[in-house]
Task: structure prediction
Amino acid sequence: MVRGRNRGPSPLPERAARLWRSLGAAFVILVFVPPLLLLVSGSLTEPGLPPSPTPQLVPDPVSTAGYERALDLGGLLRASLNSVLVAVVAVPLSVLVASLAGFALARLAPRTTAVVVAASLVALMVPPTALLVPRFAIFRFLGLTDTLVPLIAPALLGTSPLYVLVYYLAFRALPADLYDACQVEDLSPVRTWWQVALPLVRPVTAGLTALTFILTWSNFLDPLIYVYDRDLFTLPLALRSLSLLDPTNFPVFLAGAVIATLPALGVFVLAQRRFLHDHSDPRE
Result:
């Protein structure tokens, strides 16, 4: 009996995946890069001059005075430290709570899981603005207003039921034999979650970490409601004060916007590289 050669998997799906990734990258470049270039260009314009009637990619003259005035007038350095403090605490806490809740949901009985998933979907339908008054009343009763605690507290609940559901689907997609093997090895549920399941869903963790950081970093409504002391302002509130400047000082506001955008852009790039790396070489 003559056996045919093992040709291996067809390269067509891999080529199609690369094509779609290339098209997605081209779309992102076409949509997001021109506004970013105009933002940087505007921030390098000399403050105090009349606004240009047309956008200029290379301003004349090029000046960094807008950045100096933004740091001085807007208190961006202090606001950046406050935003970093909130993000450093809230983002890892949110990801850990959401992943642990999603893992527990994936290991519950199907009937209990269905009830919790339905309740989570109902919670997602509630407008966030409908919870502003109850949340404000609770934090004011606890004496936590005019602090950074209300900005971090949502992380104790995983920030959003969506994060829990995403982790639930990721852990549910893992083979059932994997969980059985962990039980045979006498691993506790916490060790199974931390040592086995969580490393296998690293792309999900990278994506949710980036999303949580960007939403936390750009959060404007919560600081506006709970924070009154200027020394506790986060970057969005500091940028709001710069937006009140006259049109001739608009480069100062754009310089502040560049400073606020760079960390979020850096986290997005790192998360994308991690996501693509885990998909291209799943053995690592």
Summary: DSSP finds 13 helices and no strands in the chain.
